[in-house]
Amino acid sequence: MPDPIRLLLADDHRMLRETLKRSMLDEGFDVVGEASDGQEAVDLADELQPDVILMDVTMPEFDGVEATRRIVERRPEARIVMLTMHADQDVIASAIRAGASGYLVKDCSFDEVAATVREAISGEVSQQVAASMLREAKGLADDAESVITKREIEVLQLIADGCATPEVAEQLFISQKTVKNHLASIYAKLDARDRTQAVLQAVRMGIVRLY
Amino acid sequence: MPDPIRLLLADDHRMLRETLKRSMLDEGFDVVGEASDGQEAVDLADELQPDVILMDVTMPEFDGVEATRRIVERRPEARIVMLTMHADQDVIASAIRAGASGYLVKDCSFDEVAATVREAISGEVSQQVAASMLREAKGLADDAESVITKREIEVLQLIADGCATPEVAEQLFISQKTVKNHLASIYAKLDARDRTQAVLQAVRMGIVRLY
DNA sequence: TACGAATTGGGCCGCACGACCTATGTAGCC
DNA sequence: GGCTACATAGGTCGTGCGGCCCAATTCGTA
Questions:
Q1: What's the pLDDT score for residue A19?
Q2: Which of A131, B60, B73, B80 is deepest in the core (most CB within 10 A)?
Q3: Closest nucleotide to A194: CA versus each C1'
Q4: What is the pLDDT of residue B137?
Q5: Closest Cα partner for B18 from B29, B34, B4, B2?
Q6: Overall average pLDDT of the A160-172 stretch
Q7: How far apart are alpha carbons B119 and B178 in whole angstroms?
Q8: Residue B174 CB lies within 7 Å of the nucleic strand D
Q9: Among A7, A11, A17, A18, which would you mutate to test the B interface (most chain B Cβ atoms within 10 Å of its Cβ)?
Q10: Considering CB atoms only, which of A16, A197, A199 is closest to B16?
């Protein structure tokens, strides 16, 4: 029998982390660590050098996509499988661009999780990921256009936190006009027509957190 | 050794359902069924007569609180432990009024899950639930006020789905003015000042779904 | 160096939105 | 029969919001 695959789990919900850990151990994987936010995931990935990282998109500090970016930057050979609530095309594309090796929706079966982790090691990519990469290759502007900038994320997060335009402006030390400009840009990128839709889409994509 | 506790799991995410099932089986519980939406939970509760139901608040068809209400209506002796993402006071209160025996945030440990299920059987209630009941007993209007009506939920869901006021009115065959009246009522109940905050709060509370 | 992208701002316009008040019909309930 | 809650709808008023124009600065990078 070969050495067991060394896993790092990153998800902000302890219940899922613990039950997933038990199941993965059952399946013969070696769960070497658990992270509950993006920062911790990056730190532990550095320290433990796991074979595969199972990472949720939605996490505190910074999200799974950003964590993936930082981990891959230091260790391009790292294998990262992303987890999300919703099968969002933009998130899949972002995850792949960040360097993820696989992608799973939380509605999938546990067997799929185990299979995808093994595929990540062997270099194969799941159908979902392949399909998405194809779409990306075809050059669907949909995603090249939808690169939400850091500043735009800050604006979205503040609005999700309950701020109106003047308060967002105050918090970021910019004029209300600039906030509105950022919002207009966000609407175009997220295909939203108002702040409500923009924030909901951002929540679905995991680029904004709901406290 | 006494008979194992017969469990029904209700959560719309297959991954959590399956990993939780494995862990509960490990712990000596007998998982007799799984439901992925509110309707299925009610049906299976009827059919399988489980000792305890572990039920997520956020589910398709109708949410966990409504499912709890319907189950308890037919079988007042049913023991139901609610699961949610966020520790929202209103949701806890609603769940208890609906007849839940316990309450767990998804950030809790697996041991807490097992313990709460056992407590649900023995009739004890968790500290969280007790604290909430105390608050309710103290008569914090906060919650008597915040009974969102069916119509209000319909309005909220349509807005979450991307409808603007005229579209909500059209969908529900009412005037725009009535929609705005419902919204005003919702703002007061959810302590929100605009539709964005109202929808986000509704998502947190699990009374509205994010597709 | 020159180009594009990000970030910052301005002005203008029209409408949607939220606050506040009133009112009617229809239920359910004591 | 009254009481309360819900759903329905109207009006008015101010302003927040989004659409659409434009422009300056600072970057990284091609």
A1: 94
A2: B80
A3: D18
A4: 40
A5: B34
A6: 90
A7: 45
A8: yes
A9: A18
A10: A16
Residue type, A147: V
B69: tokens are 């209400």
Distance CA B117, CA B29 (A): 10
CA B76 to CA A184: how far, in whole Å?
A: 52
Measure the CA–CA gap between B61 and A146, rounded to whole angstroms: 32
Q: Which of A22, A108, A159 sits opposite B196 (nearest CB)?
A: A159
The token pair at B150 is 């069916």
The alpha carbon of residue B178 and the mean position of all alpha carbons in its chain are separated, in whole angstroms, by 28
Residue A49 in tokens: 């050098």
Dihedral over alpha carbons B32, B54, B15, A94 (to 10 degrees): 160
State both tokens at A83: 């987890």
Mean pLDDT of B21-30: 93
- Locate B54 and state its tokens: 């572990």
Per residue in B138-186, pLDDT (tens digit) is 344 333 345 788 888 889 999 999 899 998 999 889 999 999 999 999 9
The tokens of B147 are what?
């009974």
**pTM for this entry:** 0.76
Structure tokens at B97: 């009024």
Strand ordering across the sheet containing B79-84: B30-35, B6-10, B52-56, B79-84, B102-105
Say how far apart CA A8 and CA A33 lie, in whole Å: 5
What confidence score (pLDDT) does residue A74 get? 79
DSSP state of A173: T
pLDDT digits (tens, 9 = 90+) for B120-135: 887 655 545 555 554 4
Q: Which residues partner with B55 through β-bridges? A: B10, B82
Torsion sign across C-alpha atoms A110, A11, B84, A87: negative
Alpha helices in A127-194 (DSSP H): 127-137, 141-144, 150-160, 165-172, 176-190
